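Section: Multi-chain targets

For targets with more than one molecule, the full set of components is provided together so that the structure can be written out for the assembly as a whole rather than chain by chain. Components appear in the order listed by the source. The example entry contains two components.
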Amino acid sequence: VDGVLLKDKFNPNFENKGTLHLTATHLIFINPTANQEIWVSYSHVATVEKQQITIKGSPLKIVCKNFRVLNFVMYNERDCQDVYVSIQNLTKPEKYEDLHAFTYEPIGSRQPRSEGWNIFDFETEIARLQVPNDIWRKTDINKGYKLCPTYPEVLYVPSTATEEILTGSASFRSRARLPVLTYYYKYNKAALCRSSQPLTGMRGRSVDDEQLLQAIIQSNPNSPVMYIVDTRPKINAMANKAAGKGYENLDNYPNVLYRFRGIQNIHVMRESLQKLWEVLENPTINASDFFDSLDSSGWLKHIRSVIDTSRFIALAMVEDKASVLCHCSDGWDRTAQTCALASLFLDPFYRTIKGYQILIEKDWLAFGHKFNNRCGLLRGESREVSPVFTQFIDCTWQIMQQIPFAFEFNENFLLDIHDHVYSCQFGNFLGNCEQDRKKESLSKRTYSLWSYMSGQWLKYLNPYYDERYNSDRRGMIIPSLSPQNI
Amino acid sequence: RLLYTPVKMEFMDIIKTPQLENVTLKVLGSRKSISGTLCLTSHQLIFFNKVNKKDEIWLFISNIDLIERKIYDSTALISIKCKDFRNVQLLISDIPKATDAFESIDKLMKISNEDPGKHHAFYYNPSFEITESGWKSFHLESEYTKLIAGSHDFHVINANKGFKICSSYPELCLVPASINERILSRSAAFRYLGRFPIISYIYHPKKSVLMRSSQPLSGPHDYRCKEDVKLMSAAVFDRKRCYIVDTRSANYAANAKSKGGGIEPSCHYPQWRRIHRIIENYNSLKDSLTKLVEATSDFDCSSSTWLSRVSSSNWLNHIRSVLSTAYFVVSYLCDEGATVLVHGNDGMDATLQITSLAQIMINHDCRTIRGFQALIEREWLLAGHPFSSRCSKICNTQDNAVSPVFLLFLDCVWQIQQQNPCWFEFNE
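Its structure, encoded as tokens over all components, is:
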């Protein structure tokens, strides 16, 4: 479509006229006189809205998942309608093959598709963490994803836990997501495990699950107790109990300290982001309304609660030398955020470029955060969409602002990752769990984001990085929670 | 290691206790307290720990905004608020010595108020190697030559020799070519504090000029000064549009008029269109900053409280109004090609913020390190911003002449940097 006007948010008088092209994978706006080319992947489009006709023409507003907003005005109403309908159809693909990742070919480099798919191997990571293999063992009980379809195939459990105990525990946990090892703090022998909520409301108790937790406690000689960090507000956990699930009954779990941490659920987070967006979208807002609206969106409060819980977990492992089991409801949202962040605080490796990628591979991809559903990559339930991963990126950024010396990477690194989660140009984030990705043979049919990023290493380097930062505290960082710092 | 020659004789009497042992120091915001020795010299407070070399803190006495002393049962607490917003607390168990130290510091703080010659700048011995004399780095004449860029429509005259026409302007003035000393002298007599319209910047592509001044002394009877009119018209080329940007509200200006100052009456200045772009008077900035600093020192408040305190401090609103006015001036100069005169009452505060920010937006040279330094020389130091009065303290004072006008300007530059980080040669 020719003669399309792209409105400038801050300068309504600025005329930017060009041509809008619709290809199979992208929307492209080209203004040859201004030497401008804007590419928008259909996967990035969150909503497209036809607005009321004005004297200038028919406006079309495109809002993207990476927070870009494009306001086009088309002279011809028929063109506008056509574009609107086309975009609508193109942005809600039914199956994975419709996504850009399957047709994307990187320009220039002749790297094979397989490059960058194997950066994470659980066994290698466990060895790096120096997990003692007489105390923790690898189990292939989940081979073929038979025990837990949303977990990785390789799991690590206490060596005293038998197959029977594992099976029993899995049947007592929501979605069979039983407590398994995700991080190990070798200096204190404290383990960080993750799971989902127990089915206390329905089943009452499970001796197997109790024994599994005892095994975790015993695997740590430095502490007679362990923590269970329930990231939910207590009320939500109790409501879950009424619905058949709930939280651990401490009568059956001796030597366990229970803590509720009050991070809100995915629906609250989705609304919070929506309100935040409205604030940021409004260039004429005055300063006091800005602060009021920012506050009432609650976004920064939620960020703070995630960082707070992660900090709690890290401090429990370092100061109390205790192992921690972290769960929320299904153990794939808040659990992923807090386990990943807590590991980031404790282990400087995860603050390097490679390490952060591995952290995402482990706690988000392997452990089954539902990227497809949460990011709306395919046509699906809008109630499943929630900015959980966005919050994790934001939390990482907050800590980078506070302690810039501790990170090998910079803001561009985080922004590119976030952008490509939604762009579907690479196969890494397609699907909801490891099993999905293996089934679709993504590593053979699409390119990996990590190989693309390794070609632009320099773009992501942080000039303030100090490898030996806090080396007297083993590289641990503890962020501040004061509101001035978030 | 000492940056000063040892305590001068005139300060010896004031410092009763040059050294105190067993002092505990806490910097507000950090979690740890350090114990060590406190040293008092003629111009500095030095705190060090003999064991741990890293825990050393140096504080210039002239950097202290407020010092307070509280005595508990067996300890004295001296709290020091610095002008760079650091907040330091000293716990001293030897109460008489603490009292001596407090009184000495208090006297040392006041010394340079009474005798400017005792300011630490006169005693400073730099530890770095001097590769160029900063006093000779920026010649006003070459700066003006750069601005004129070879055009024959402007010239530099030594009209203000001996500062006899205007005590707060430089001796050399950049004015349109048709203007001579006599015109300037008459115009100065018609302007508050003698601050006649002087050229800040020339936008050559559109032949538009940015000028600044103080308010005209037209008074309630609309007095006319034909030289002032001539001076202003000389900067308007090709019969283009011209604007007067008044940083006061229409009411405030009317009030000033009744007291002998006021606005350029349109009957005498028919070409000129006046726009009021209200920038709050410098008096309110100090309170605004005080509120903001208070908000930042409460680490335990909730995020809602923090945001509402930031909001009610109004600091960001000040930034916004200054930046938007500067932007308007830039669009008049560059888009419309109109000549602009900016003034308020004195033309010493908001006016300078506007003209310097406008130049930063238009002229890429001002975004280089040397160019920015030159800008400060031209638009702040030589333009007569009363640094001594405005910056003698930062917040903790009743003195109404104190105001963080320059700090606001720096914050505005920082804001532009945040939005356009690749535009600037210098960093934070």
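DSSP finds 13 helices and 14 strands in chain B.
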